[in-house]
Amino acid sequence: MAATVSALRTGKLYTIAEAAHLAGGTPQNARRWLLGYASEGHRMAPVFARRDGDARLSFVEMIELVVVTRFRQGATGVRIPLERLRVAHRFARAHLGIDYPFASEQLRYEGGHIMHKFETSVPGPGKLAIDMHGNYALPSAVEETLNAFDYDTLDHLALRWLMDGRGGLIVIDPRFGAGRPVVAGSNVRVEIIKARFEAGEDVDELAEDFQLDSHAVQAALRVA
């Protein structure tokens, strides 16, 4: 493996359903992306070899699923098939020489050029790069998400995800909350705030109990 990745980011943290929920996609598409599928006349190979048969995703794999979902959500005109994104992923992996190109800071800076090169080399449906007067950029939904990741300074892979954007209050960081969304600067999981709110506690009560600002509690409920 070209890049050294910490065990926390490569350990299997999420079920397919959990990863799909965090990415804003469907479990069916997440399963197809991770494990591939075969049906009459159609076949898509798995993105990663699962030698141990484990269908759970690591943090960096979940981040890649988020990016894949944003490519599909941000598509204009023809929707980009998952199989085409799998081929683009393989192209970017070879071009950058890393196992997780869609979780890499290099995609943030070079992604428009790489995807344009892919589209030129492998024509197909959908647009993965946008022509900005001769300069190529990724679709805005993808760029916004890539800008919401913090990256490791050594391997340049996603380190944490600021779910509600820069300056936001909700983060996914595999070092905290078992990799589930938490309020930034704390270990308070969003799902716990949501459960207690639905049980009848109000925002001020939750803020006092968890020693959080009420804005942080409201942000957690929005993300939840």
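[next item in queue]
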Amino acid sequence: MNTPFIQRAQRWALIVSLLLASERAMAQFVELTAEIEITDWDGFFFFDKLNKWPDSPGQPSIFTDRHKRRCVVGSNTWMIESEFRDSKVTRWFTGTNIIQHSVVIKDGSESTSTRSDQSIDGNPGRPVHEADLTGFDLAASVCWQAFCSGPVFKHESHQIFPPSDFWKESSIVYSGWSEQTEVFRDSLGLPKSIQLVTTNNQSVFQYQVHRSTNVLGWNFPLEFFGVQYVPTRTNGWKVHLTLKGKVTAIGVGAEPQIPAKVVRAANK
């Protein structure tokens, strides 16, 4: 028997198995569920005058629903799942594309739609002159910023946008803003705080993490707050919306799998 050959083969098999195990260990994922409260103050002031909220018999507008979103986060991939009364929207970032798959159930029938857009960092925000990537609902945009935006901050030329697209209807389009961001010091690099400020030092958006936890060596916010401002016609500024997020469940997760039919539809 060729004993040296067998020993070399065994050593190579061990090396390969260790490399594969190491690769699997590096591909870690965290799954979480968050509740997001968003207060659109212009909307609330308007409906307060009517003493009711749309589709409700006089419900006080100050009492708002909490939007639940489920997220799975990897080092350069993520999934955000949004469920509504008669529909479900799932978005994946693959590292090169954002894929959105929508399922709508109406009158007992189901319809689906799938869209895919190229993205180098998974940032769903876009300047006013560029097409939006798979138009995120506001709660999903907030979750993306809090839990999935790590890859963006690894690019020096990145740009962070306010969560609500209302800024595109204001003079901020022309003046722009600067960014001051502090991120957690780990390999994921989620933001601890964000300040978007105009050239005359007016706040456009403020975001702050108040509590956080560590899972698999990554820091995740457990509770966070945000305020977005818009200019008024009198050259002043006012609060557009406030937001509050709270994580209700978090732990080690599995890599999100995109169904084969969704992949086929995205590649058409």
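[queue empty]
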